[in-house]
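Quick one: structure for this chain?
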Amino acid sequence: MTIRKLPAAIVAATLAIAPVAVQAAPVARAAAPAAEENELGGTLLWIAIVIGVIIGAVLLLDDKNDPVSP
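Got it. Here's what it folds into:
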């Protein structure tokens, strides 16, 4: 094996061994209880949408369409 093929061989071996190593690892995680859900729900999204609509309406309905040069 030449020196140029050595990094490719190392990468191939790492990719082949990685899934086996992950499966062999012990699982010690437990699911977190979902008793306290987020009370905002989708409220923050709706507030952002309303603010965006208001800003868009103000920009579109602005009557300052006067020409720059007299």
